[in-house]
C-alpha cells in the first residue's frame, strides 16, 4: 500500500498505548490514517506518544481513556471519536487482559473482567461503529483474537473462552456485513513479547530459576516452532493489508500469525 492509502480515514485502536495495539496504530498511521488511541498510562507520556506519531506520519491523533470493561465508558469513547473525526472507518479491537489459574481456583472477578474486556467490549465498539460504516459503505473491523481463539491451553479458561468467542463474533459480523463494503476479520497471534507476555516470562524465570533469555526460549519451545516471537510490527502490517482493496473479499477469517503454533 502507498504511504497515503488510508489518508482521510480514522482508525480507533483499543489498548493502543503499548504492545500490539501501539504497533498496529503506528502501521495504520504510516499509511495516513488518523488515530484514536485508547489505553491506560501516564497522560503526559501518552501525549508524548501522540506528538511523536503526529510528527512522524503527518496525521492527527486523539486519546480517550475509556475502561473497556464498562459499556458507558466505551459509549463515551465512541461518541468522542465521532465528534473529533466525524466517524470511525477502521476499528481495531485489541484491548485485553490475562489471568492464569486452574478452573477451580479461578477468581470469579477475574473471569468477569477478562470476558468483559477481551470479548464484550468488542460487541460494544462494533455495534456503535457499524452505523457510520454502513452509511459510507466502507469499513474495516479487525479483532485481535489469539491462537487461543483456535486452540486451548491449560490454566487460561477465561482467556480461551473469550478469544474463541471473539472468533465467533468476527464470523457473525462478517456475515451480517457480507454484502456491504465493510469487512470483519480476526488476527490470531502466537507469542508476542508484550508487557502481558513478559509477565509470564518473568514468572517462568522465577519458577525455574533461570535467566530471562532462557525463560523466553523455554516459553517459545513449548508452543511456537519458529522459536521466535511475533512482532507488533508484523501484526500491524497484516492489519494494513486487511484495510486494502486486495483484502475486500477476505471476510470472517481467523488469520493466525503464530510461528507454526496451530500447524502442529
Automatic annotation (TrEMBL):
Coiled-coil portions: none
Source taxon at top rank: Bacteria
Pfam entry (one): adh_short
PANTHER family the UniProt entry points to: 3-OXOACYL-(ACYL-CARRIER-PROTEIN) REDUCTASE, 3-OXOACYL-[ACYL-CARRIER-PROTEIN] REDUCTASE FABG
Family of this protein: Belongs to the short-chain dehydrogenases/reductases (SDR) family.
The protein's name in its UniProt record: 3-hydroxybutyrate dehydrogenase
Organism: Undibacterium umbellatum
Lineage: Bacteria, Pseudomonadati, Pseudomonadota, Betaproteobacteria, Burkholderiales
Amino acid at each position: 500500500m502507498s504511504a497515503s492509502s488510508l489518508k482521510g480515514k480514522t482508525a480507533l485502536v483499543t489498548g493502543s498505548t503499548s504492545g500490539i495495539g501501539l504497533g498496529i496504530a503506528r502501521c495504520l498511521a504510516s499509511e495516513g490514517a488518523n488515530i484514536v488511541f485508547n489505553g491506560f498510562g501516564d497522560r503526559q507520556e501518552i501525549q508524548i506518544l501522540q506528538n511523536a506519531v503526529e510528527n512522524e506520519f503527518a496525521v492527527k491523533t486523539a486519546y480517550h481513556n475509556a475502561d473497556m470493561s464498562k459499556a458507558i465508558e466505551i459509549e463515551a469513547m465512541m461518541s468522542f471519536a465521532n465528534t473529533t473525526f466525524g466517524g470511525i472507518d477502521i476499528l481495531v479491537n485489541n484491548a485485553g487482559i490475562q489471568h492464569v489459574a486452574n478452573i477451580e481456583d479461578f477468581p470469579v472477578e477475574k473471569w468477569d473482567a477478562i470476558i468483559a474486556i477481551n470479548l464484550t467490549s468488542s460487541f460494544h465498539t462494533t455495534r456503535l461503529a457499524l452505523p457510520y460504516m454502513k452509511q459510507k459503505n466502507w469499513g474495516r473491523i479487525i479483532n485481535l483474537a489469539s491462537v487461543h481463539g483456535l486452540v486451548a491451553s491449560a490454566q487460561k479458561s477465561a482467556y480461551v473462552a473469550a478469544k474463541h468467542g471473539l472468533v465467533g463474533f468476527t464470523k457473525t459480523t462478517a456475515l451480517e456485513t457480507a454484502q456491504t463494503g465493510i469487512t470483519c476479520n480476526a488476527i490470531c497471534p502466537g507469542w508476542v513479547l508484550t508487557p502481558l507476555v513478559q509477565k509470564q516470562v518473568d514468572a517462568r524465570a522465577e519458577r525455574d530459576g533461570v535467566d530471562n533469555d532462557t525463560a523466553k526460549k523455554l516459553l517459545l519451545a513449548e508452543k511456537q516452532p519458529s522459536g521466535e516471537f511475533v512482532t507488533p510490527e508484523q501484526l500491524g502490517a497484516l492489519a494494513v493489508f486487511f484495510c486494502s482493496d486486495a483484502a475486500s473479499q477476505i471476510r470472517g477469517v481467523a488469520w493466525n500469525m503464530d510461528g507454526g503454533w496451530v500447524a502442529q
